[in-house]
Design the sequence.
């Protein structure tokens, strides 16, 4: 029987919803220590619709796991929810089939993985303060999506759900997942001292990633997780706590809460504005082109933050000279689909004129044929994974580049 450890989870200390030095933002503050203090001065930013959709997906996953008496018996979000609307912060999220399929990919993996473990926790707060040589400036904590543990085999697993598709997330040397792993190990040591763990599996479930391998795992020895806290986590927190913590621009600026007031990003935007394109239209070397692209990305991060802030201000009633919010291009839709169906029948309109039938996607048919391996195996010969196009991305991670090749 899977033990959800509810009593132990409820003993965790109450803290703010997010730590300023938490797991989800570590890819930013480990590279830009100055963003820690700067973010405390920044005005609050409204979550994007993508973040809100991810929040909704996580809430369904948590609810279904916690409500299940035994996740190993199967978990699934009912397709009857398709078409329903959910308010998340200031966004109205309409659940579609892709959303349900993505949530169910995570739930299905959790059900299968749970077969190999005896303990399961979900949305559990893990605290890492005990790894610090000195008291951190704020409490270090994060909430892991799913943690699994089997004392008999001395193995634990961290499963992290990523709803986005734009950025491919690799579990290999992933600071966010290592943060969760270290916190989970500290929790196990404090609450289950008899459970000796030798290895941790870090797993990313990213249903909408533009690669064929949606679920990716990486194994690491517990000793290496501990070394990571010494070599990466501890030094990074100490630098963040210093008064002269430096600011560094990079891809992490895109999600930084302080991007709107960051002097480094403002400098990048000003550099773009002042550049004399008449003297030199295009960079004449690959290195110069790379440098120009870095400048453009940093400027775009600041521009995006300014635009989002302006939208929030205008929606709040602030009058911004020469700017206003206007509706996007309207899309026609039926007010009541059932009434339309009845009216079409009354008018004797042929169904071929009002409905379109098309072959379902490979993912949909594979799901429908679950358990019929022979049938799906025959159909796989007609499946290909092809991108609809390409886009420019910045990445120094070899395994990410290989995924797209």
Sequence:
């Amino acid at each position: 029987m899977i033990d959800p450890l509810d009593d132990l989870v409820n003993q965790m200390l109450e803290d703010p919803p997010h730590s300023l030095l938490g797991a989800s933002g570590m890819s930013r503050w480990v590279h830009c220590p100055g963003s820690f203090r700067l973010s405390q001065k920044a005005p609050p930013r409204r979550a994007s619709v993508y973040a809100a959709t991810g929040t909704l997906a996580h809430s369904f996953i948590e609810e279904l796991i916690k409500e299940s008496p035994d996740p190993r018996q199967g978990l699934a979000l009912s397709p009857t929810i398709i078409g329903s609307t959910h308010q998340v912060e200031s966004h109205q999220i309409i659940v579609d089939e892709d959303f349900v399929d993505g949530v169910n990919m995570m739930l299905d993996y959790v059900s299968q993985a749970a077969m190999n473990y005896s303990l399961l926790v979900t949305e559990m707060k893990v605290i890492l303060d005990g790894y610090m040589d000195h008291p951190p400036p704020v409490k270090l904590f994060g909430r892991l999506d799913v943690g699994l543990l089997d004392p008999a085999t001395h193995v634990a697993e961290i499963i992290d759900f990523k709803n986005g598709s734009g950025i491919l997330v690799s579990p290999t040397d992933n600071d966010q997942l290592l943060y969760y792993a270290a916190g989970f190990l500290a929790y196990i040591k404090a609450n289950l001292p008899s459970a000796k763990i030798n290895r941790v599996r870090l797993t990313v479930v990213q249903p909408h990633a533009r690669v064929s391998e949606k679920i990716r795992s990486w194994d690491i020895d517990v000793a290496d997780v501990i070394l990571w806290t010494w070599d990466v986590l501890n030094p990074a927190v100490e630098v963040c706590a210093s008064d002269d913590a430096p600011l560094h621009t990079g891809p992490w600026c895109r999600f930084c809460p302080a991007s709107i007031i960051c002097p480094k990003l403002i400098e990048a935007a000003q550099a773009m504005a002042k550049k004399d394109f008449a003297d030199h239209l295009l960079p004449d070397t690959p290195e110069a082109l790379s440098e120009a692209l870095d400048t453009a990305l940093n400027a775009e991060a600041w521009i995006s933050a300014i635009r989002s802030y302006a939208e929030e201000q205008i929606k709040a009633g602030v009058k911004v000279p020469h700017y206003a919010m206007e509706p996007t291009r309207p899309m026609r839709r039926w007010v009541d689909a059932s009434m339309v169906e009845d009216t079409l029948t009354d008018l004797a309109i042929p169904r071929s004129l009002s409905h379109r039938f098309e072959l379902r996607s490979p993912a949909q048919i594979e799901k429908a044929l679950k358990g019929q391996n022979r049938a799906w195996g025959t159909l796989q010969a007609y499946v290909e994974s092809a991108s609809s196009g390409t886009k420019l991305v910045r990445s120094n991670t070899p395994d990410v580049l290989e995924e797209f090749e």
Summary: The radius of gyration is 24 Å. Residues 1-13, 397-405 have pLDDT under 50 and may be disordered. The CA atoms of residues 267 and 299 lie 8 Å apart. Residues 286-315 form the longest helix (30 residues).
